[in-house]
Amino acid sequence: MNAKRFAFNFVVVMVVFGFMLTACGPKPVPAGPSTVGEPSSVQPDQPGRKVATLIYTQEFDNLAPLYTDMWFAWTTWQMFLHWAWEFDEKNEPFPRLVTEIPSSENGGVSADGRVITMKLRDDIKWSDGTPVTADDFVFTWEMAVSPKNTVTSTYPYNMVETVTAPDPQTVVVTFAEPFAPWLATLWHGILPAHILRPVYEAEGTIDNAEWIKNPKVGCGPYLLDTWESGSYARFVRNENYWGNRPILDEIFIRFVPDDASQVAALQAGEADLGTFIAYSDIPTLEQAGLQIMTEPSGYNEWMFFLVNDQVGHPALTDVNVRKAIAMSIDREAINRDLLLGLTKPPASFWDALPFYNDPPLQNYPYDPEEAKRLLDAAGWVDSDGDGIRDKDGIPLELDYGTTIREIRQDVQAVIQQQLAQVGIKVNLYSVEADVYFASYGENGPAATGQYDIQEWSDGPLFPDADLYYWLCSEIPSDENPAGSNWFYLCDEELDALIQLQATQVDVKERQQTISKINQLFYDKVYILGLWQDPDIYAVNPRLKNVRFSGVTMFFSIGEWDLEQ
Amino acid sequence: MGRYIIKRLLQGIPLLFFISIILFVLMMNMGDPVATMGGRRVTRASDYERLRRQLGLDKPIYTQYLYWLIGNDWTKTDVDGDGIAETPGTRRGVLRGDFGVSLVTRKPVLQVIGERLPNTLILMLASEFVIIVGSLLVGVYSALRQYSVLDHIVTAFSFIGYSMPIFFIALLSMYVFGVLFKRWGLPYLPTVGMFDPQAGKTAAQVLWHMVLPVLSISIISFAAYSRYIRSTMLEVLGQDYIRTARAKGLPRREVVYVHALKNASLPIVTVVGLDLPLLLGGAVVTERIFAWPGMGRLFLDHVSRSDLPVVMGILMMIATAVVVFQILTDIVYAWLDPRIRYEK
After folding, report:
1. H or E segment at A274?
2. Considering only CB atoms, which chain B residues are within 8 Å of A53?
3. Whether this model's pTM surpasses 0.90
4. Which of A154, A272, A421, B315 has its CB surrounded by the most CB atoms within 10 Å?
């Protein structure tokens, strides 16, 4: 049998086989109750039900506030658990459980910035009919700071001195010191005190409470109906919702960890919304008729320089070397060729918060000749003719580490080539994220200063401008094994400015302080932006009224509709 | 035989003990479960130290192993960080059936595994069934019709399947039968998950969604099994006792299926015996691609978060299954071949 005939037969057999398989499929699906797994309260076969299917590429680990910090939990909270205030598609705050956003104008923020007074709506209630009151807020704070609870983070509640409830609709938060980032960090979901307080009083902790593992009572437009580990989570309309009646009957979240499978499911029309879309998949999805929507989330991809000659490479303590590196990398080309021109290299750490990037910074140009001149002037020359610059017998050879994300490794390879052209040798490293981000105490490679150049996606405490990594007190050591200043940089001017901005509640004053940090980062090239890293969604055109926020991602989910 | 089984089971206990020590030490060096807690930022220093203390990760490795093995309900721990051990431990340890609580989901490990194991068993047993039945049919046929056209075709298909990586077969079949068939207006197969949300989780839906994953797994393993059966059958068919059986005038069917196949099955039992316990671990790649919520994905997800209790639970379950299935294999050996005896 010749090869052509064999190939033809192979295709014929496969197609026939495919027909045989597909022809005996369950179409239409017989109506009837669920026969496998946990029985659901939902009757999925009712005709005309509006069921939107969302794909999550990661499964949330937990859905209870305080007990998770996963992005996919944040998106899901808007379905069943409102925040006190949420953020719209422009990342502007709007009141949800409160009547108005506290401010100094309406008396919600005290003159010294320590006391925040919130007025709650009087019509908000949990799905079981119990009113949402100030007591729920007080209880949430108590649980966040209780040493008996294994919460993911006590921040920012550990900065709070007291939370009191003078009446059921008033919450008074008093900070120990003026605390600027309160609007971005407070009340990311509240706990139902009427359900959890008895558990806490009986067990001394809410860690094992049923609501923490399965929060089926909520105050949002939808309610958790079923969550099957690794498979799906089903949310149904909250018939007791205090706001406008949600339009969809049901939201079905399917956990699909593989990018290629997500693309196939979206192409096949088996999902209405895809998340964490890879840049390389965008053309395919657009071709399949899906709408690509991006939303700034404050995150950008950065190169972080280790600026400490005791720990890192001595060359990086010279600002001209760092500047030369910035001018040796063609970041525009990287964005154009590897990220399909969908992003730009950010010049400012506050790229997604233009208010703080004012006046806007301009990126260092790609100018390898000027980079060579800067390196020559700094004394880094190729004295032995091996193609690598050196100084005092030390070669300009840098270790550059990041995680195994595919696009990062591609960019690393390009940067390695471009830096080689100006005489800088770069050794590339890429490791799993849980190893890469391990602490100094756990011998994490970045935390222990094994990489002269580090790379990951980060940003300020979006939508707030706060930052803290670069504090001198955050430098890791045996005494401080969890320190987050993996750049081992202690710049006293920068340190003072970072501490100052965190306490400035006057918006204008804080903007000026952040602008100084912005300029300092730029002038001293402590960081180098590679590309903007917004949230990217693929939306099936039949899903209507979809708007995203970079903070409370699905803030408008009650308005989403499905064209039948 | 009874004494032999008890002896083998007792031998398995120290083996599992040493396996658990090795796995525990390896896992402790695989990453930091508190590094990001699944978030996009590194855990704050104050939270980091508190979480390590509350989760018992600040203890020396031998203490953590001891707590994992025998529990900590006989001692007190310092939960509030004041330096005084004030809270009685609640863990009972693996030896008393408590595998601990997942660091990721905060659920008991046995519950986490119990939620996934049925899904894996459904998928893997169906695949194993298809593989064994299919390869027996093809292997025996190829042996009986050696060098026939069909033998050549089956051999070619076997090697094509065997030489392709499973992710390629899985994605290709998903794209062809799920995406392209739908685009061409043909009846099509579902791409991901266990059921269609509009239809609900019915048995028919689950079966329907199993078609592509089972197909992908089967194609890979089918080749090896069928070639194995073919060669052992060919070897047995050339033995003297088969010739004798034929000479006695036994029907061909009886010669092949009673005398030849039973003896040819011995090596196959070994392979199946080794494969069956590994089925519990699921098919990592296939489950990931088809979003099948089985043990393979569970393992992958929790390894990436350095969730030691869950990963140890899965690995120890597989190790125990390997020991048990080896004993079962020996028993089946004795049943298939009367010459094999484990006792004097």
Report:
1. strand A273-274
2. 197
3. no
4. A272
